[in-house]
Amino acid sequence: MNCWHNSVHERNDMSTQEEKTRKALDSLSRYCKAMGYQGWDNFDGLNSRIVDSAPFHYSYILRLIWIQFFKRFPLNLRKLTLVPKGYNPKGLALFVSGLVYSGQYDEAKSLIDILMKLSSPGYNNVCWGYNFDWQSRKFLTPKSTPNLVVTVFVVNALLDYYKATGDHKYFDLAVSGCNFYLDNLILFEDPDSLCFQYMPGSRGKVYNVSMLGATALARVYQINRERALYDKSKKAMIYAIRALQKDYSWTYAENRKFIDNFHTGFNLVSLCKWMEYTDDYCWERELKGAYNYYLKTFWLENWCPKYYHNSLYPIDIHCSAQGIVTLLKLMPYNTNSIELAGKIADWAINNMQDNSGYFYYQKTRFYTNSIPYMRWSQAWMFYALSMLNYSYTQ
After folding, report:
1. Are 90 and 111 in contact (CB under 8 A)?
2. Beta carbons of 305 and 315 less than 8 angstroms apart
3. Looking at residue 57, what is its pLDDT?
4. Is 351 exposed, middle or buried, given 0-12, 13-18 or 19+ CB atoms closer than 10 A?
5. Which segments of the chain have a pLDDT < 70?
6. What GO terms describe the biological role, i.e. biological process, of this protein (predicted)?
7. What is the pLDDT of residue 3?
8. b vs e for 178-201, b when ≥16 Cβ sit within 10 Å of the residue's Cβ?
9. DSSP secondary-structure letter at 313?
10. Angle CA 132–137–142, to nearest 5
11. Residue 157's Cα: distance from chain center in Å?
């Protein structure tokens, strides 16, 4: 994948891509600011005020059908069914991190202030969940139920802001977020490994959950050097590394065997950054193998993303955004990373960005779902393009 950027033609191509990225980011930023960073979500069907008063609100089967229908249907029925726009804590965290990359610290702080008001009540430490009820095949999760993934994204946003400003208040808040899942979300632990659960009461063993949790602990450890954080984080990473298959792929979870694009990206970034934060490069061979698998498996020649290892559809903007992030976070392992991230961005801008600035959700074989989801699409692409734009200036 390596190449040299010596020709005038290649330098001109890079300059053109830089300008295209900047314009796309500016357009997206204007859209998101005009919306006040509030919007709909692909999983927010149960926020409908009609559902609240309907008899099928009490049936888990009908709740599941309703939420899946809203997720998959290409026409946006949310105004008709009285689903309000809202702040999504994970989306806000991604916006904060993107704003820090862009040097917009005052704007980032204003969103952190909102995040602090959205912290889930009832726990000794700060934590966050989603702003909608969510029905799975097994249980109903009420809105604001804290979970590890959302909390980790907020923790990383707080650490990004702390790194940029030096304000120790935000480091302390990040530590509190890590303490939440250390105190509440260890599903099992033995002398060698541990597994974090997604949220209180859940039993699924999801690899990216433990890896995300481990890497946030390692990032805090890099700053305060508390050995216990390193020890816990390494045990969580050991659990996930043991699940790496012979072809260097990860399935999603112990009991869910699909292999998908953006969760693999989560795992790669988590492992790469864990080794950087701890200065412990014990899994470099595994990282290189998994990264090579990711590049060969999940991208077409034009850098259109495949969703699964064995299936193109649905073509999802989340995969493009995480692809940009993954390439940039793993720059030490590919000298061509910025150019390749630019190609992923170029495909997404050409094929998934609306003239009004926002990015579409998905393309299927038969139609495009152009609903402007704020967290899934806009926040992720804002974060990814902000990181790419920043990389061009370094």
Report:
1. no
2. yes
3. 62
4. middle
5. 1-14, 53-58, 137-138
6. carbohydrate metabolic process
7. 34
8. bbbbbebbbbeeeeebbbbbbbee
9. P
10. 25
11. 12
200: its two tokens: 């209180």
- The encoded tokens of residue 217 equal 């602990």
Q: What is the pLDDT of residue 4?
A: 34
Token look-up 């989306």 returns 91
**3 state DSSP class of 59:** coil
Q: How far apart are CA 221 and CA 233, in angstroms?
A: 9
**Residue 135: strand pairing partners:** 140
Strands (E), the chain: 134-135, 140-141, 186-189, 194-196, 315-316, 362-363, 368-369
For the chain, how many helices (H) and strands (E)? 14, 7
* Residue 168 structure tokens: 């120790």
Beta bridge partners of residue 369, listed in sequence order: 362
Residues paired with 110 in a beta bridge: none
Both tokens of residue 130?
């989603």
Dist. CA 372–CA 357, nearest whole Å: 10
Residue partners of 166: CB distance under 8 A and separation at least 6: none
Residue type (1 letter), 251: T
Retrieve residue 229's tokens: 């954080």
DSSP 89-100: HHHHHHHHHHHH
Q: How far is CA 272 from CA 174, 377, 383, in A?
A: 20, 24, 19
Angstrom distance (rounded) from CA 332 to CA 208: 22
Cα separation, 120 vs 116, in Å, equals: 9
Q: Which amino acid is at 393?
A: T
The Cα–Cα gap between 269 and 281 comes to: 14
Nearest residue to 157 (alpha-carbon basis) of 379, 377, 372:
379
Do the Cβ atoms of 209 and 149 come closer than 8 Å?
yes
Q: What is the pTM of this model?
A: 0.94
> What is the chain's length?
394
Tokens 């008899």 correspond to 55
Residue-level pLDDT at 353: 98
Q: Are strands 194-196 and 315-316 parallel, antiparallel or unpaired?
A: unpaired
The most distant pair of C-alpha atoms in the chain lies apart, rounded to whole Å, by 67
